[in-house]
Amino acid sequence: MNTTPTAKQNITLRLDRQTLRRAKVLAAKRNTSISGLLAEQIEALVGEDEAYDRAQREALALLDRGFHLGGVIAATREEWHER
What we know:
59% of the residues lie in helices and 0% in strands. The protein is mainly alpha-helical. It has one domain (17-80).
């Protein structure tokens, strides 16, 4: 994760009054602002998405490498196709 400070940018959000009221209460319970609450949730979502993408890339790379399951081929190709 990038730990260097970056410029912040404001966004506009439209919520109905009841949701806004409940969000204010929730933010107060968590000792933060609505903006802080939203920023924390969005950052968590982005982090989860990045982790998912990384795990997917690692899984696909593992599948590309394949697995050695411990078996040994004792016969030659000619022996298998002997007639």
